[in-house]
Amino acid sequence: MIYERLEVRRILFLSIIVGIVAGLFTIAFIKTLELSTHFFLTEIVGYTPPKPSGEGGTPDYNFYMEHKWLLPLVTALGGLITGILIYFFSPESAGVGTDAAIRAFHHNLPVGFKTAVMKLITSAITIGSGGASGREGPMALIGASIGKGIATKLKLSSREQNILLAAGLGAGIGAMFRAPFAGGILSAEVFYKEDFEVEALIPGFVASIVAYIVAGSVIGFEPLFHTEVPFPHFSKETIAGFVLLGIVSAVVAKILVKTYFTLRDFFRKLKVHPILKPAVGGFFVGICGLITPLAIGNSYGWIQMFMSNQATPFSIGELILSIFIVILALSLTLGSGGSGGVFGPSLVVGGITGAALSEVLNALFGEPVFNTGVMTIVGMISVFTAVASAPLSTIVLVAEMTQGYNILPLALISLLLAQLIAGNEKTIFESQVKKRIDSPLHKDELKAYILETAKVKEVMTKDVITLSPEDTALKAKEIMAEKFIAGIPITVNGKVVGIVTTSDILKVEPEKLKEVKLKEIMTPNPECVLPDWTLLKVMRILTSKGFGRAPVVSDFETMKLVGIISRSDIGKFLIKKGIT
Q: Where in the cell is it found (predicted)?
């Protein structure tokens, strides 16, 4: 008990350290990303992306791209630089950062400070050059690398290492999104489709809040987006509209997941050097950016305009088209091996979906029945929930990012429908597993669960070879050698009176094997078990007493033999269940 209290205190203290370092990396990442964006997009392409209000965005933004035909070349250049860095220095930095962290968690893979630094650089170049990628995914892997790296340096147990990895993941996302509570929840929720890593929840909250404070002291504490969301007016029309948004969000999410994995598999098979693949993907991302600027970078500034009901240069048709173009750009960026994350782009796709649907419905009604800002926020929640199967953290995340708590009643309608229709068989995070019991990390828990639910009668050998007390040691030795068994129950009229094992036989001098009776060397009144006992109970008995097997009797009064069970029988049963 004292050890457990010390372990908890150590984890909480280290969670503070993880939060501090994650907060500092968040600041470094944002500053690096700003420099990268200014160099690639502002200086070369002549395009300054709009910003959300929490990052200095203003309502008077005007879209302008001076050298737009340079965009595909710039996105390709960014992909090429990223490909070189990833190939030579950090292969684990490629693709979706959050999924890499999830995979490291379940399989106890090494991720350290080198990964954090390289993910920061490669993601800043990918996003800054116009790649349709998110910055929260990189911070998830960076935070996870910090947590795992600190725990590894201190030689903590595998369990503690993974708790700090989860806490670091939540800290990175909480600081970047300026949503500390969502970061804490995400540190427990994102690893599973239908479960929580409960042990990581409190450390995740601690690390996320500390990271938010550290990062906020430099980049500010105000929410990422500014909204003035009215309390929703419930009517048949509005409820039907948000039901429809949930259905549409599920369809969009399925398209997003399918498109991403299709293009990722395509690029994996593409016979081009790995260094060049992000450049190829980047070039086509630039083409997407020429069709719609929503496909360039993270597009949070555009989402801010939709939330604020600001005028934008997009018609209804262009908004609908942009949904699919952004999905394509995201899939090209990350599927080709570019660095970044899927959090931000998925939220952007959801935001565009909500904005487009509100415009369509308002046009059909002939009046502004639906608030575009509200539909934008709910679309973000619904699509990402369906994409990532993380409903609780997503709804808290967007509420913190937007301060749009008034919309939660309507958001729940769309969110639950989207989650229900999309299902969770395949999410954007390939390394997610359904429940804790499905995680390699919790293999011992699964083993204990199986042993606790399986009965002796399901595993025992029913056709048992027996001998009598009057049989000779030689006869027992010959049967054991012929049948490859190491123990034989001794019975009288079907009642167990003893057991003889190979070790008992070995104690008899070879020349006396014909003379010695089993009653002289057997273990009398052996430890027996009942058919309805669990394998876990039997395994504990065999382990604690050093036995390899035990006779199975119908009851302890008659001691009638009905079977025998051994450690190897239990081992074979576990292997059959997929547990080694």
A: Membrane
Distance CA 63, CA 47 (A): 8
Which residues in 213-367 belong to E strands, given as ranges?
A: 339-340
Higher local confidence (pLDDT), 98 or 424? 98
**What are 479's two structure tokens?**
């049967």
Give me the mean pLDDT over the 520-537 stretch.
Answer: 92
Mind listing the domains of the chain with CATH numbers?
Answer: 2-438 (1.10.3080.10), 445-576 (3.10.580.10)
How many residues in total does the chain contain? 580
Number of Cβ atoms within 10 Å of the Cβ of 441: 18
* End-to-end alpha carbon distance in the chain: 30
Residue 308: strand, helix, or coil: coil
Q: Extract the tokens encoding 223.
A: 């929410």
Residue/partner pairs of 437-444 with CB below 8 Å, 24 or more apart:
439/106, 439/191, 439/192, 440/106, 440/107, 440/108, 441/105, 441/106, 441/107, 441/108, 441/162, 443/579
- Mean per-residue pLDDT, 320-340: 93
Handedness of CA 191, 196, 200, 203 (dihedral sign): positive
Cα 412 to Cα 246: distance, rounded to the nearest angstrom: 9
Tokens of residue 505, six digits: 């036989």
DSSP letters, 173-222, are HHHHHT-HHHHHHHHHHTTBSS---GGGHHHHHHHHHHHHHHHHHHH-SS
Residue 273 clears pLDDT 80, i.e. is over it:
yes
Give the single-character DSSP code of 43. Answer: I
How many CA atoms lie within 13 Å of 320's alpha carbon, on the beta-carbon side?
A: 9
- What's the longest Cα–Cα distance across the chain? 106
pLDDT at 424: 73
Q: How far apart are CA 360 and CA 362, in angstroms?
A: 6
H-assigned helices in 499-549: 502-506, 518-521, 535-545
Residue pair 561/553 in contact (Cβ under 8 Å)? The answer is: yes
Distance CA 199, CA 362 (A): 46
pLDDT band at 215 (very low <50, low <70, confident <90, very high): very high
Element counts in the chain: helices (H) and strands (E): 23, 7
Residue 229 falls in which region: left (phi positive, over 0), alpha (psi -120 to 50) or beta? beta
Cβ neighbours of residue 341 closer than 8 Å, sequence gap 6 or more: 96, 97, 98, 123, 133, 134, 135, 136, 137, 138, 139, 140, 141
For the entire predicted model, the pTM comes to 0.79
State the average pLDDT over residues 389-415: 79
What is the C-alpha separation between 162 and 110, in angstroms, rounded? Answer: 10
Q: pLDDT category, 95, cuts 50, 70, 90?
A: low
243-257 core/surface letters (b: 16 or more CB in 10 A; e: else) = eebbbbbbebbbebb
Does the structure show a pLDDT above 90 at 543? no
Cα dihedral 162, 168, 169, 171 sign: positive
Residue whose pair of structure tokens reads 């997003």 in the numeric block: 256
Could you give the 3-state DSSP secondary structure of residue 11? helix
H-helix or E-strand spanning residue 489: strand 487-492
Instruction: Say if residue 364 is exposed, middle or buried (CB neighbours under 10 Å; 0-12, 13-18, 19+).
Output: exposed
